[in-house]
Amino acid sequence: MIEQTDTAALTLPPNPARRPVYEDLLDFLRDPVAAVAAFVFLVIIMLAIAAPWIAPQNPYDLASLNILNSGLPPGSSSLTGGVYLLGTDSQGRDLLSAMLYGLGISLAVPFASVLIALVVGVTVGLVAAYSGGRLDTLLMRLVDFQLGFPPVLLALVILAVSGPGLGKTTLALATAYWAVFARLVRGAAQSERQKEYVVAARCLAIPAHRIMFRHILPNVISPLIVVGALEWGACVSLEATLSFLGLGSPITRPSLGMLIANGLSYIMAGRYWVSIYPGILLMSVVLCINILGDRLRECLNPRFKA
Amino acid sequence: MISFLAKRIMQAVAVVLATASMVFFAVFIIGDPAQLLYSQNASAAEVEAARRYLGLDLPLYQQYFNFMGGLLHGDLGRSFVYGKPALGVILQRLPATLELAFASVVLAVVVGLPLGLYCGLNPRTIRSRLIMAVSALGVSLPTFWIGIIIMLAFAVNLRLLPTGGRGNTLTVLGVPWSFLTIDGLRHLLLPAASLALWQASLILRLTRAGTEEVLRQDYVRFARAKGIAPGRILWVHVLKNVLAPVVTMVGLSLGGTIAFSIVTESIFSWPGAGKLLIDSIYAFDRPIVVAYLMLAVTIFVLINTFVDLIYAAIDPRVTLGAADSGS
Amino acid sequence: MSEPDPILVVSDLNVSLASGKRMTPILREVSFALRPGEILGIVGESGSGKSLTASAIMGLLEPPVRIVSGAVAFKGRDLAALDEKAVRAIRGNEIAMVFQDPAMSLNPLLRIETQMVESIVAHDRGCSRHAARERARAALETVGVPAAAKRLRAYPHELSGGMRQRVSIAIAMLHSPAVIIADEPTTALDVTIQAQILDEMTQLCRKNGTALIWISHDLSLLSSFADRICVMYAGRVIESGPCGEVIGAPRHPYSRGLILSVPAMARAGKDIEPIPGYPPRVGMVPSGCAFRPRCHRASPACAVQPPLQTVASQQSAACFHPFDDKLQVPA
């Protein structure tokens, strides 16, 4: 076999025959639960993006709020003549508008966090795997230390010290989640390193960073996407928890978690809607992301396992 | 065994010291507690006096050494709100949290393990699919939302159980416990259940996956080929192998449970350390926050050590000396 | 021809994989007989159905794989028709099995003693713990495990591969079964250990009068000790007969190809002759003779499945164009 060595064939990572993208998509949607989740999630995303145009009220415009309107049941009419489809919250905000705006925050903040965590984690993981030795040990000790600490507690403490805010929440969540990606990439990169195509690339004196990013990274992308999707779900959940505790989103720009918290004191009085509607929306978001993430894993698994 | 414990204790001390340093820099450098503690219109002299009282006027390294020195003596500062040693305030609240956490872990194991086993043994039945769907909800839903739903359903609408507090307690060893009285148990049930759902779902999924995996193993076929009765195969051959990873999971999720009890305690007004933490965060009572963190880290390290010991007891292939080099 | 009656007769065994309403046949019309004390070698490539045949005899098939028709008659009773409890009384007691990989077939979390004693007690309820332990120790000594008493207290991972397989064999022999089915029991071992274990096991079986079904993909290994040989291809027995005849004068083109592709058996001075192509996958077996696409003697007649028929005094083959000459023995 050695005589036949063809550098191009050896240095390229194994590339499964490409299928058209729509076929992958059809395959993905073959599972009815995933198809429903995909549809619902698409609607949710569109609602979040279109919020400024479709919301009956701008919940950030304090001038349009009237405390006299607080805690109205669904379907009541406002002092200015509009109808509050889902009632109002403790600040007299139209709940539907607040939810549509809050939805965007509940999706975007965790998404940004996962992106940051991904970039940091992948970099740390690749550096650790490639450098080896003491740096590797040090970085991985840090990762272990971090993973031994529940993300809720970490993010909570960071926000307790820094105070609430969208940017701060994003960073706190990213801090709580980067280690997962670092561990994943480092593990995958280490096993890829042993494989022949990487050994071959090293023999050809291809520079280290090129091997890392051009050869190893593409092979760990599938698991990264899957874990990233599932972490996004966990992050939405965690952001909601932090905002529920009043530590995440600021009072002026409430996310779904804070809307739920606002309604909590009303629940005992039977005015359930202030918490329940944002809660149902939050539940749908997290569930959709998790179902899609699980389906993604099912679909991608055979390819990165083979 | 002894060398394992010695090594573990040294590691634990290192972890706690590292955490202490991180906490110090995080908590004491970002922001100025004196600024936060006193109202905006406090005079410069008042703030300065406060800074001196809290030791904040000292150079940073000296503050650090004071902090670490205090830590070694078990002195984590005095609570600004309660005016008592922070550690003492937390230790007083800790039993309530531990009671809640253990109750939820027990509940999660009692529910998750048998159901996971059932789903693993009968993967194709409609009942298993239903159980799996519910567990998918269980791992997805935020704990606080589960708590609200449970409270709304059982306490507000059905009025079956109380909405919050610990109820009647019985004092044993100088500590009040809820689980020893009927009323206390009624108060314990909802918060424990809302904490347990997430864990039970995790345990269920792991048990199911483990059972399906173990059933495929040759040693199960060999046991059948030996003519061993199905009951013994299940309880001895399968269960023991399924249990090993589940024990680790339960141990690790105990840490998560203690962390999440912060949220649950706030919803159900359970007077534990978690609620104290949240109240202290709102009140800028930093010594309490710091003491809580140090205590939490210590508990997590203890749990991990304990989990390793149990794992080694179940699986003879694990030798304690090498247990820590793997990860 | 005064041979004793067979102790195990497998006749027209059909096993299928059920998926929804579709049934994919995996074993077709498998038939063979085993006489007391005889060593029967079953040979075939991976996927030919040889391991599945073992599982079917033992009643160890797991749904969705199941027996569709046919009989497994042991001492006159059809195992395929018995209920689970009755079969369990026979498994490990009168018919025992040894698996391929000793690292996988012993439970890693249980001591050797536990795994042997449970096997004794399963078929001998009255046996006391002490007596069972004593029997286990004796059984280990019989199969050549040194320091047996100490080994009883060990966990599987503390033993070498060869020792572990000896333990499996000792477990199989605990109740002096009439039949032992050994599914490639030496494949996972080092070559030197392989020979030792093979030797000890066949000798013990001959001494105790235990019939042995030895499943292997290694024809040259089987030819050194088997009394009779069955060749399987794509879920079917395509040739069977006494070892000497099947090796010396294989009738089916596949058997012949199998023998000629073994370097040691190929005639001296000639290259080995690999069989062209690959065996068919489950569910994609061609109609008629499954070997037809790879066979140079195939004719249009082969589009119909040839029955397994007698071609010489004790030899049968499923082929319309069987060879009738002996293989040239190297001069």
From TrEMBL, chain A:
<dbReference type="GO" id="GO:0055085">
    <property type="term" value="P:transmembrane transport"/>
</dbReference>
<feature type="transmembrane region" description="Helical">
    <location>
        <begin position="272"/>
        <end position="293"/>
    </location>
</feature>
<dbReference type="GO" id="GO:0005886">
    <property type="term" value="C:plasma membrane"/>
</dbReference>
<comment type="similarity">
    <text>Belongs to the binding-protein-dependent transport system permease family.</text>
</comment>
<feature type="transmembrane region" description="Helical">
    <location>
        <begin position="107"/>
        <end position="130"/>
    </location>
</feature>
<feature type="transmembrane region" description="Helical">
    <location>
        <begin position="33"/>
        <end position="55"/>
    </location>
</feature>
<dbReference type="InterPro" id="IPR000515">
    <property type="entry name" value="MetI-like"/>
</dbReference>
<dbReference type="InterPro" id="IPR050366">
    <property type="entry name" value="BP-dependent_transpt_permease"/>
</dbReference>
<dbReference type="Pfam" id="PF12911">
    <property type="entry name" value="OppC_N"/>
</dbReference>
<dbReference type="InterPro" id="IPR035906">
    <property type="entry name" value="MetI-like_sf"/>
</dbReference>
<keyword id="KW-0472">Membrane</keyword>
<keyword id="KW-1133">Transmembrane helix</keyword>
<feature type="transmembrane region" description="Helical">
    <location>
        <begin position="220"/>
        <end position="245"/>
    </location>
</feature>
<keyword id="KW-0812">Transmembrane</keyword>
<dbReference type="InterPro" id="IPR025966">
    <property type="entry name" value="OppC_N"/>
</dbReference>
UniProtKB/TrEMBL annotation, chain B:
<keyword id="KW-0472">Membrane</keyword>
<keyword id="KW-1003">Cell membrane</keyword>
<dbReference type="Pfam" id="PF00528">
    <property type="entry name" value="BPD_transp_1"/>
</dbReference>
<dbReference type="GO" id="GO:0005886">
    <property type="term" value="C:plasma membrane"/>
</dbReference>
<protein>
    <submittedName>
        <fullName>Peptide/nickel transport system permease protein</fullName>
    </submittedName>
</protein>
<dbReference type="Pfam" id="PF19300">
    <property type="entry name" value="BPD_transp_1_N"/>
</dbReference>
<feature type="domain" description="ABC transmembrane type-1">
    <location>
        <begin position="94"/>
        <end position="311"/>
    </location>
</feature>
<dbReference type="GO" id="GO:0055085">
    <property type="term" value="P:transmembrane transport"/>
</dbReference>
<feature type="transmembrane region" description="Helical">
    <location>
        <begin position="242"/>
        <end position="268"/>
    </location>
</feature>
<feature type="transmembrane region" description="Helical">
    <location>
        <begin position="12"/>
        <end position="31"/>
    </location>
</feature>
<keyword id="KW-0813">Transport</keyword>
<feature type="transmembrane region" description="Helical">
    <location>
        <begin position="176"/>
        <end position="198"/>
    </location>
</feature>
<feature type="transmembrane region" description="Helical">
    <location>
        <begin position="288"/>
        <end position="311"/>
    </location>
</feature>
<dbReference type="InterPro" id="IPR035906">
    <property type="entry name" value="MetI-like_sf"/>
</dbReference>
<feature type="transmembrane region" description="Helical">
    <location>
        <begin position="100"/>
        <end position="118"/>
    </location>
</feature>
From TrEMBL, chain C:
<dbReference type="GO" id="GO:0005886">
    <property type="term" value="C:plasma membrane"/>
</dbReference>
<keyword id="KW-0547">Nucleotide-binding</keyword>
<dbReference type="Pfam" id="PF00005">
    <property type="entry name" value="ABC_tran"/>
</dbReference>
<protein>
    <submittedName>
        <fullName>Peptide/nickel transport system ATP-binding protein</fullName>
    </submittedName>
</protein>
<keyword id="KW-1003">Cell membrane</keyword>
<feature type="domain" description="ABC transporter">
    <location>
        <begin position="10"/>
        <end position="259"/>
    </location>
</feature>
<dbReference type="InterPro" id="IPR017871">
    <property type="entry name" value="ABC_transporter-like_CS"/>
</dbReference>
<dbReference type="GO" id="GO:0055085">
    <property type="term" value="P:transmembrane transport"/>
</dbReference>
<keyword id="KW-0067">ATP-binding</keyword>
<dbReference type="InterPro" id="IPR013563">
    <property type="entry name" value="Oligopep_ABC_C"/>
</dbReference>
<keyword id="KW-0813">Transport</keyword>
<dbReference type="GO" id="GO:0015833">
    <property type="term" value="P:peptide transport"/>
</dbReference>
<dbReference type="GO" id="GO:0005524">
    <property type="term" value="F:ATP binding"/>
</dbReference>
<dbReference type="GO" id="GO:0016887">
    <property type="term" value="F:ATP hydrolysis activity"/>
</dbReference>
<dbReference type="InterPro" id="IPR027417">
    <property type="entry name" value="P-loop_NTPase"/>
</dbReference>
